[in-house]
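Hey,

Quick one before I head out. I ran the complex with magnesium ion overnight. Inputs first:
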Amino acid sequence: MSDALVEISGLNKKYALSGGFLSPQKRIVHAVNDVNLQVFRGETLGVVGESGCGKSTLARLMTRLEKPTGGSISFKGENIFSYTKGALKSYRRGVQIIFQDTYSSLNPRKTALSMIQEPLTIHRLGSAREREEKALEIMNRVGLKKEHANRYPHEFSGGQRQRIGIARALVLNPELMIADEPVSSLDVSIQAQILNLLLDLKNDFHLTYLFISHDLNVIRFISDRIAVMYLGRIVELTTNENIYGRPLHPYTRMLLDAVPSCDPQQKERKMKIKGEARPQNGEGCAFQNRCEHRVEICEKEAPPLKKYDEQSHCACHRAGTI
Amino acid sequence: MRTPLLEIKNLETVFDTARGSIKAVDGVSLRVQSGETLGVVGESGCGKTMLALSIMRLVPGNGRIANGEIIFSGHDLLKLSEDEMRARRGSEISMIFQEPMTSLNPVLRIGEQIAEAIRLHQNLPAKKALELSVELLRDVGIPDPQKRIRDYPHHLSGGMRQRVMIAMAMSCHPQLLLADEPTTALDVTIQAQILDLISGLKEKNNMAVIFITHDLGVIAQNAQTVAVMYAGKIVESAPVEALFAAPLHPYTRGLLESIPAVCAASGRKGEHLKTIPGTVPGLYDLTAGCRFCDRCPDTFADCKSKEPTLQEVQAGHFVSCWKYDGKN
Ligand SMILES: Nc1ncnc2c1ncn2[C@@H]1O[C@H](COP(=O)(O)OP(=O)(O)OP(=O)(O)O)[C@@H](O)[C@H]1O
Ligand SMILES: Nc1ncnc2c1ncn2[C@@H]1O[C@H](COP(=O)(O)OP(=O)(O)OP(=O)(O)O)[C@@H](O)[C@H]1O
Ligand SMILES: [Mg+2]
Ligand SMILES: [Mg+2]
């Protein structure tokens, strides 16, 4: 009776890159590699990982901006890639996305109010007047003032533009909000304002969040459960408390260890941080080149994401023994 | 007291624009000793980069240094001729930038670029310089440097490029390194390695570093002294332990409190973060009083009308705030 709003199974996305003019053979990037994941109704699922690990690709697949090369995503039990026209339309209402780079996702020639109204117009909801009222109400809710209504994107600060992006996503009363690095380009003092807003909106509008960030501080603040990604795969999936209190995967530990602490007295690291995420040609675990716990099996077999206990999944041959 | 390697007095860097003149750096004074890292922290637009570029005397286009002294090793850099300045730039004082791609030449192999940087200041034959660049790349932790010197910048990952930038900056053993957000574009695990690299090189060469960032964690881990900037001014400066244990300026306190969870160690999930209301004022519309006044939780009579100045309220701990004026 699991109350999964989204069910991702065996999801894969490969991109073929041309090797440049000197090497005609194509290179394959496995951006999302056999991802299995559920998003439960009412939760905030944080997705964390370093640049290029496939976070945005996952978000684009979930919003159907791209098609997978394998696997499926179900929303309320139905595969989103085999929707009929009508079902697709209601999916487009029910699932919204907020981006990092609000400047390029907003139309420079439209006012804040018209951009916030636009989704209502596209979905032909309400009369012109009702649409405007709804948009003004949402603007107010996200902390924009009435006098902002007729301003253009360049007249807003980064934090205010992010509020416009949030309002646009919110105006259709979605069930699921996908937030792809929504605060990454903001200064900390503004970041805190937006995080608080997202927290409030979640409660007020009964939202479910898929929250993507590379910032472990932000992920810790916002998430109920957390998925850690590395080179296209989920390597650990568990509760917020477990990730920070009892990280299982060596990569999770390395990430946590790398975050510079705000306590100048606390300078010791627990481990040696080395190497970078590089797709390997050979076999075995994708993290082996950076792992201090590597044993023979790690070089031969890629560890699948396995159930560790009631709350946790981990993709490491040595989970629980290190 | 030791004579500092660098002492800046009352520096003003001004931009003349169609909308009027703004002071991107407004009366900044600071000192850095050899072997010391000064962390400069502040939010976007507060003047960190312009401060560094002013020290290099590389303020862009419509900007100019309007006032002040930059005394480096006993000489005021602002009084040097352009030739004298050029001789110091890249040799005695080096800078690494946030985005290495904009400062590396995309059509030159990295070995040639480093060799060129070396030959700018040292009279070495090309072959020797190239050998030296292999050594430098090895020093900054690039595997297979012999092969790597033949790569173009786009062949390298972001972390590797930043290592190359550091190798170039270190090529002439500078006494002062200006590091402008050198890790902001990098992943945390790469950042950790680059920070270790910079601090290792600093120790080895007894170099002074001005480390610019907006990340307070990076400051806590890497600086000995911290200067907090707000809208062109230093509003607080202190030894790193004092600043984090007992920040005095309401802005510094607000900044520290807005950092989520890990910093506060407790992980207050579900609770609101403390925030600083409002946004940084634009430099075009500053008023007479304190620049932080509109966002400040505790204001006094003078705050709106008079600008506070930096005062030493505890040994080595300076703050620019009327709260510590004595009468408040
Ligand atoms: N359209 C595309 N064509 C080819 N490769 C792509 C494309 N989109 C993404 N990739 C590759 O897929 C991988 C995952 O990219 P993705 O943008 O999902 O990462 P990310 O985790 O969002 O990274 P970041 O933190 O930098 O945003 C990367 O190696 C990327 O280069
Ligand atoms: N060429 C210019 N003309 C006019 N104003 C400028 C120019 N360059 C910078 N400024 C202004 O000078 C101020 C300081 O800019 P600076 O780049 O030093 O900020 P910063 O602290 O480095 O910010 P960031 O964290 O975003 O890098 C800003 O308010 C900026 O708008
Ligand atoms: Mg992304
Ligand atoms: Mg800057």
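The longest strand of chain A covers residues 4-17.

Talk tomorrow,
K.
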